[in-house]
Design brief:
Elements lengths: L1 H15 L1 H18 L9 H28 L3 H27 L4 H21 L7 H11 L5 H11 L4 H25 L1 H7 L2 H23 L1
Length: 224
């Protein structure tokens, strides 16, 4: 049951964090849509699905690695204690993310800046795949995009670290990735109209408050 609740929670975090995803990745999705053949939104779907499939694949790999790291880094008798500690950290990260998306704190922005140093090593690889002309290129570019520095993803990776196994960590990140799909697919299909809607202060406030509530729930599960 705990695993099911965690997967639902990760999916919800991806869905609610869509405001942040659109802000971080909207330009990338927009560029892909321009490169996609056909003027109608439906004509862009194959490219968008290949792109996002690559992104989810990277999330699953990262989640599996962090889950395995959490499983192997401690003696068995200390695993449960460390999982509780990391669950508290994950809850705090969700609180910070809610504050960040709502525009009330920029602490996570500094975390993303640190991750940006790693991204600079990967980003040049993506330039060789532009412009994207076929789904295979979209898949490969999406796999690179999955490593874009993002406070929301980092929160999920900490959660994966506390998940207890590589499989649980991978499933957690995949559930999160699926939760981000509606917002990013809508961005690719409807471009500026959807981005403008999602980026409204009211939408950011609602998403921020819901993520804060989710962070409080995560903390309560870890503490009680």
């Amino acid at each position: 049951m705990n695993e099911a609740i965690s997967l639902i929670g990760a999916f919800s975090a991806g869905l609610l964090g869509g405001v942040h995803c659109v802000g971080m990745c909207g330009g990338i999705v927009g560029a892909l849509s321009i490169a996609s053949p056909g003027a109608r939104p439906a004509a862009r779907l194959p490219m968008l699905f290949s792109y996002n499939s690559g992104r989810l694949l990277s999330y699953g790999v990262a989640g599996g690695l962090f889950g395995a790291l959490g499983q192997l880094s401690l003696p068995l008798q200390q695993v449960q204690l460390m999982q509780s500690v990391l669950a508290v950290v994950a809850g705090i990260m969700m609180l910070l993310l809610g504050l960040y998306i709502g525009g009330w704190s920029r602490v996570l922005r500094h975390v993303e800046i640190v991750g940006g140093y790693f991204w600079r090593l990967i980003e040049p690889l993506g330039r060789g795949l532009l412009p994207v002309r076929n789904p295979l290129q979209g898949l490969l570019l999406g796999m690179l995009w999955g490593w874009l520095p993002c406070g929301l993803v980092y929160s999920m990776l900490i959660w994966a670290l506390a998940s207890g196994s590589a499989i649980n960590g991978a499933l957690l990140l995949l559930a999160f990735g699926v939760g981000t799909l509606p917002n990013l697919l809508a961005t690719g299909l409807f471009a500026n109209r959807f981005v403008s809607f999602v980026q409204q202060p009211r939408m950011r406030t609602v998403a921020g408050l819901m993520l804060i509530a989710f962070g409080v729930y995560t903390l309560s599960r870890a503490v009680f």
